Amino acid sequence: MRTEYLRSNPETIKKLLTLHINETLWINNHKNIAVQVFDTDLKKLTGKAIPEDELRQAFSRMDLTYDPIKESLFKSADYAYKLGFLAKGQKQQPDLSGIYDLTLLNNILKENGRHEVY
Known about the structure:
The protein is an all-alpha fold. The chain has helices at 3-8, 10-29, 31-46, 52-60, 70-82, 103-111. The two termini are 18 Å apart.
């Protein structure tokens, strides 16, 4: 979100982040139910479902996270710059050091006895 929106609406963002954390943890701890809910909702939205065995197999190989994994974005941006997709025509790679503000997320995690993300 835009920095201005975050500064103007911290309580709204706190509620959103809290829900996101809780939902992420719920899905990771209830994958069997999550697969069923996902497939049901996917069918409602698209008219098609994914075979349940394929979904179960996919869910078994992943854990959802509320951690934005900053290094992943930085690595992708680095590749995009080197390939000419980011900052085209500029001699210097864009500075992305301020792209994340994890303060509110980490405050919520601390309040709930969880480890901070970096």
